[in-house]
């Protein structure tokens, strides 16, 4: 036998062996795992000694949900479980797409854009990935044109993460939705569109727009279909300054929003 044929045969035999050993076991609870005392998962906020900062929130039932007092609630269900004799555990998920750390596509507030297919699959990964500035916003106001002026964000800056009072108030860690969160007022959004090169706008609660200017601010940002809105970021304890941001939405065809994983790299 030639070496390649021998290799392929060996592969086939091995996979057959795996399949038959799976089928033999009626209730396979585990395969060759370490002893139970080592089974403590590590959950991290930073990786690589602090070089990679996770700025996405963990999805859990008690995280806030838009205009709800009860939080997100259960969002995964075990459809097949090993305890019930399945070969593996398989969960299903049901979650509003604008939950937790997420992205808005132009179809979110423009019906024509929605119908034309401007969904999250059409968002530009070149905007969602690259150098980004993390700035602190004055804590006593919503983000108005006046506030935007005082931030002095230089021309050429394409991605900005705005940290607000929402982070200090730990609103994303509170189950109850809070309408008093800080966000962009319409004139602040307009000022950004007219006077800066910002194409990625990141904020630290569920909406970039203040509740009082919810739709007007979204319309201003999304009309040109160039600006991408990332909401519900976890910016706690991160130094202001320049980072490399990396945000990746799911390719949900026809969806105007998606959960998004965002990290900063120093
Ligand atoms: C599989 O699901 C069962 C519940 O039926 C759970 O107790 C067990 O921990 C799960 N196993 C794994 C490997 O996730
Ligand atoms: C196992 O199956 C029973 C009976 O169909 C069902 O009531 C139970 O919820 C299942 N458990 C899991 C963890 O899937
Ligand atoms: C921001 O606007 C909301 C209404 O959308 C208001 O409840 C809140 O008090 C404002 N926050 C600040 C810091 O002015």
From TrEMBL:
Cellular localisation: Secreted, Extracellular space, Extracellular matrix
NAD among keywords: no
SUPFAM superfamilies with a match to the protein in the record: Putative cyclase
Keywords: Extracellular matrix, Secreted, Signal
Signal sequence coordinates: 1-23
Pfam families named in the record: Cyclase
Family designation: Belongs to the Cyclase 1 superfamily.
Record protein name field: Cyclase family protein isoform 1
